[in-house]
Write a structure and sequence with these properties.
alpha/beta, Spore Coat Polysaccharide Biosynthesis Protein SpsA, Chain A, 2 domains, 9-stranded mixed sheet, 13 helices, 42% helix, globular
Amino acid sequence: MTLVSVVIPSYNHERYIRQAVESVLFQSHSDLELIVVDDGSSDRSLDYLRGVRDSRFRLVEQANAGAHNAINRGLAMAKGDYLAILNSDDIFYPDRLAVCLHRLRAGVDLVATWLEVINHKGKVLGVKEGWQNMLPWPITPLHGQLTVLDAFTINLLQTNFVSTTSNMVFSRRLYESIGGMANLRFVHDWDFLLRAVCDFRCELIEMPLLQYRIHATNTISSNRAWMLFEICWVYAVHTSAVMSRLLRVATDAEFARAEVNFMGSAINLQGNDRVLWMILQFMKQQRRAGCQDPEMLLLENATLRQEFIRYIVV
């Protein structure tokens, strides 16, 4: 058997946490460990979690530090050959891990699947088929060589069609190479994926194996300006690296032309092009001054980040 570690970052989802936990413990692939990191819940989530009795289950309680921190703590504790994340309001299909493991054992390092989108009551709203439908914002469809080269990667650069940290199962070697989640509130999953596709084989399984829940308290609903800033940050940080992976045989001139065309026509910043160029200019100036990771300053310095967010168009 192959040990799979599943990490659930839990925060104030007493209504949904039992379904999430049981969807892991009742997987057809039973060689697993489930690590739940409760991130300072103030509801009755812990009443249930403290009562779970399964030798494969571990509960960690911490003061509220954010989803990325809770995920990273769980991943650092994980012992599995393969790792997965499940948000505390989502649900695994019973065969999710078994199907994903089949592809991972064949040489893929990260898999995502189609999603069954449900509401707060569990009613099915539709099936999200990767980049084919239900995109988080409108984009211009890509045609030509880039799409042929690697559909997963180029479509991921356009928009986060994977949608959620719940929709990733990946190898330990990938995690040990790229690290965990960055200090991002809304797009830590997208950032993680874009780091992964630069050096590892990633694949979309064309069947729904996860129920992704939409409800009024989803994190993505809490601060639209901050979310749009993080989208601009992702494009500023990752576009060149991902494009260079796709165009490794291109000349410098061909690469520059493709990058400009992509930035100009294939992404949708929802009216915030100026903020993207501000971030790019800031990073360029900081590197000239000797800063190795200027993009991290924007995540770690709240005052500096707010100077950019105030220019966001919502």
